[in-house]
Amino acid sequence: MLLSCSSDDASSYNKGQLIFAKTFGGTNNDSAQSVTATSDGGYAILGYTQSNDNDITDKQDESFDFWVLKFDANDQLQWQKTYGGTLDDRGNDIIQTSDGGYAILGYSFSTDGDTSQNAGLQDYWLVKLDAYGNISWEKSFGYQGADSGISMIETNDQGFLITGILDVTASGGEGNSSRTANRHAGGDYWVLKLNNSGSLEWSRYFGGNFTDTPYGVIQTDDNGYIVVGSSDSEDTDISSNIGTYDFWVIKVSPSGDLVWETSFGGSQIDEARGIVKVDDGSYIIAGDTRSNDNNISQNKGAADLWLIKISPSGNIIWEKTIGGSSFDVARAIKKLQNNGFLLSGSSRSSDMDVSENMGQNDAWVLKTDSNGNLLWELSVGGSNIDFSYDVAELIDGSVIAVGDTASSDGDILENKGFTDLLILKIED
Q: Could you report the per-residue pLDDT of 207-230, keeping only the tens digit for each?
């Protein structure tokens, strides 16, 4: 049964307390895309930088490179390093691995510097780092087209599952192993299982003849995987497209076979950005919706943050919209130690569930309980565009959100270039 959760206006919520908003960067474009809490109580951030001055100390040219910054539990920068070649290389996801090091994933156009190969245009680029940011190994995966790594997990066998976009048209149908290769068009979900040294165990793509983009992945209790993202296809692997872009959720077996797939949304654009597993065996998926029909019981404005809870077999249990009268979106969800959820994204609203707006897009961080009820929300920014792409709870319960900012006023004390990497610390 589909249940909807209601919420009051923002005046009834507590507010997370902003401890600081810090910027890092140089005179060009710099951004944080992912943050992971680390076992020492600190955190590590992955993004990319085009700069080679100010806070960036190990880079010579002005091409984009992966950029990792490691902070201790007292928010002191311990080390930072850039990785890449002479072309466009951008990081999307970072995890701390069970050996205390890190794995970073994104895409690369380069064939030099830290990158050993490129099959054409952009490839998935996965780099394994030790605890100090030194490269242990790096791997590229791709074909002739634009193939981009987006998200990953360390699997129960200490390997990796990496997901992103495969340009199936350019690959000529290559990219599948042990499966009949149906020719799909454009970009598909591309899921690769690797061992702990980065060697490929299997590779599958899923999608249809339009655009299918995965943003989140989780391993299930039966050692399969659920991948979430968006799709505007209505053929091949997609059986129940509801309208334009939907949340498209797939379950694959431990060996990569498609177990089930389902779509959630309405007649407008709905995009899933992240998934977490909860203690009762179900899953919470976060994204945003512009719809006001079908699976969406209420739309408060142009776009709302949309949460859905689904069963292990992919049936919707409840759904919830959070936002105001303008554009409000989620880009990340994390499960809290107390079974609630942290979310981050951006907001243009200043009404209903959103208490204020500093100008254009603000970085937006929220906390909900286990049923998706809003506990607090916080907008941070200035008069220009500010965005949060990821969020993490640290060991001490404080919150770190990361993204980028083009502002130099309001909550943003300094901007060093076009956009700077943005770090927010929030006390729950």
A: 988 889 999 999 999 999 999 999
